[in-house]
Write a structure and sequence with these properties.
InterPro entries: Chromo-like_dom_sf, Chromo/chromo_shadow_dom, Chromo_domain, Chromodomain_CS, H3-K9_MeTrfase_SUV39H1/2-like, H3K9_Histone-Lys_N-MTase, Post-SET_dom, Pre-SET_dom. With about 425 residues, this protein is an alpha/beta fold. The protein contains seven helices and 20 strands. β3 and β4 form a beta hairpin. One zinc ion (ZN) binds next to loops.
Length: about 425
């Protein structure tokens, strides 16, 4: 609920609008009712402002070029035809031409369609495509903003689709950490904390758990896959710069969720160079019991099943389901020759049935490269004892792998 005040009213009139309505819709409502509202950016001064949001169509009348303009914060019904010389939006004009060219090149792939330039109007199909593309761009930008508002780590998240008209996923909610299903409790308080003056050299938390410190001085993982990571926790005396606090600081690299051009849906690529053996991201989702995972596995299609991640470090009681709730890792594709490797991590929760899952680079990854991990290596890191094989629900259907690696095993499960 929000309040908007008509400029000339001294008394307060409360307006009710649905909670989840978008900023654009609020601005549209506000302008339509001629109401100002500081918190959504509509003031007396800009109440009647007109800013071009995107261009929808093109025509030539009496040798004059016109563009159909969608105005920002105004509904489609107020779109107007404006002469080219009135438009001060070179980038949007460029976008319009690019979209038109892309559409034509796509159409021409199939059949030879020659379209005369300087036509007096656009074909309706082209204008429709340009508007859909503009709307998609806005929706993806809005989703990108939302992801960055929700994430609590340093690296930025970008979203890009230059491939098709797919918009943001409809049934996906960004979370930063495990979301336990009702009845499952994640004890987020360690029972032990170290009191080292230097966690790198002293007998620290890993030693207490009977394992080696996982990292070297350059924050790279130095233990073999399959070995657990025990990081310093909230009970430890050491500060945030302790060399044994890596996964808990979250993703440091800026990543991009992008639409793949080889039919693998969304994927994730890095926008910066990733050092070898460094932490890239955590795999999070709903924590459910393995029985619940069996049940969901029966309901999910092939794609849904690939989001089920068995926590089989020491037991097989729990599964992480990242189908609806997850972070960037939800969008990371499988490869039989991956550049990310899975590790079990214990920080504030020392319950060995519920490790956190961290993905580390196996080699240097160039900026722009797609990130992948081996879906069959989930958990144990050992294909032969893979828990997927024990699960009748997940065994029912096999999904063909399209990773393209020389060593591709042919199937995702
Ligand atoms: Zn320590
Ligand atoms: Zn410690
Ligand atoms: Zn420490
Ligand atoms: Zn493969």
């Amino acid at each position: 609920m929000m309040d908007v005040f008509p400029p000339n009213f001294s008394s307060t009139i409360a307006w009710c609008v649905p909670c989840l309505v978008s900023l654009d819709t609020l601005q549209e409502l506000s302008r339509k009712e001629k109401l100002t509202c500081k918190s959504i950016g509509i003031t007396k001064r800009n109440l009647n402002n007109y800013e071009v949001e995107y261009l929808c169509d093109y025509k030539v009348v009496k040798d004059m070029e016109y563009y159909l303009v969608k105005w920002k914060g105004w509904p489609d019904s107020t779109n107007t035809w404006e002469p080219l010389q009135n438009l001060k939006c070179p980038l949007l004009l460029q976008q319009f031409f690019n979209d038109k060219r892309n559409y034509l090149s796509q159409v021409q792939k199939g059949k030879a369609v020659t379209l005369k330039e300087n036509h007096s109007s656009l074909q309706p199909a082209i204008a429709e495509y340009i508007v859909r593309k503009a709307k998609q761009r806005i929706a993806l930008q809005r989703w990108q903003d939302e992801l960055n508002r929700r994430k609590n780590h340093k690296g930025m998240i970008f979203v890009e689709n230059t491939v098709d008209l797919e918009g943001p996923p409809l049934d996906f909610y960004y979370i930063n950490e495990y979301r336990p299903a009702p009845g499952i409790s994640l004890v987020n308080e360690a029972t032990f904390g170290c009191s080292c003056t230097d966690c790198f050299f002293e007998k620290c938390c890993p030693a207490e758990a009977g394992v080696l410190l996982a990292y070297n001085k350059n924050q790279q993982i130095k233990i073999p896959p399959g070995t657990p990571i025990y990081e310093c926790n909230s009970r430890c005396q050491c500060g945030p710069d302790c060399p044994n606090r890596i996964v808990q600081k979250g993703t440091q690299y800026s990543l991009c969720i992008f639409r793949t051009s080889n039919g693998c849906g969304w994927g994730v690529k890095t926008l910066v160079k990733i050092k070898r053996m460094t932490f890239v991201m955590e795999y999070v989702g709903e924590v459910i019991t393995s029985e619940e995972a069996e049940r969901r596995g029966q309901l999910y299609d092939n794609k849904g099943i690939t989001y089920l991640f068995d926590l089989d470090y020491e037991s097989d009681e729990f599964t992480v389901d990242a189908a609806r709730y997850g972070n960037v890792s939800h969008f990371v594709n499988h490869s039989c020759d991956p550049n990310l490797q899975v590790f079990n991590v214990f920080i504030d929760n020392l319950d060995t049935r519920l490790p956190r899952i961290a993905l580390f680079s196996t080699r240097t990854i160039r900026a722009g490269e797609e990130l992948t991990f081996d879906y069959q290596m989930k958990g144990s890191g050992d294909i032969s004892s893979d828990s997927i094989d024990h699960s009748p629900a997940k065994k029912r259907v096999r999904t063909v792998c399209r990773c393209g690696a020389v060593t591709c095993r042919g199937y995702l499960n």
